[in-house]
Give the backbone structure.
Amino acid sequence: MKRAHAHELQEDARPALVLDVSEQRFRHLFPIRFSRIEPFTEAEPSTGALVELKTGGYVIVVYGTITHRATISVPISSDIASSIRALLDEAPIRASEVVWTADEAGALDLAPDEPRRAGAR
C-alpha cells in the first residue's frame, strides 16, 4: 500500500468498514503518512489519506483521534467485497477490531485475534 494523491480518485466513496484500533495499531496497519483533516469536515479531529493498494485499487482511510475509530471507504464504482479483500491482503485486521461492515462486504477473512496472556485483561 502507498499514499496516493487526492486527484487520483475522481469519484465519491462510500463507507465499507469501521475499525476500533489504538493509534499504535492503526500505524501498524496503515504504515503511510496521513494528513490532518480540516476542522468540521469530520465529527471529531481526524487524519486521513487516499491509499492505493497493490492491486491498483483505492480506499480512503479516516482515523478519529478521539474515538480511535477508522473508517475505510471505497469508490462507489468499486465492488466493496473485492476492495476489502484487497485491503485485508495488505493489512492484517483482526476480527475484534471490526465494529461495522457494509452488507455488501460479505464474509471477511480476518486475521485471528492474538491469544490473551495469563493475567491480561
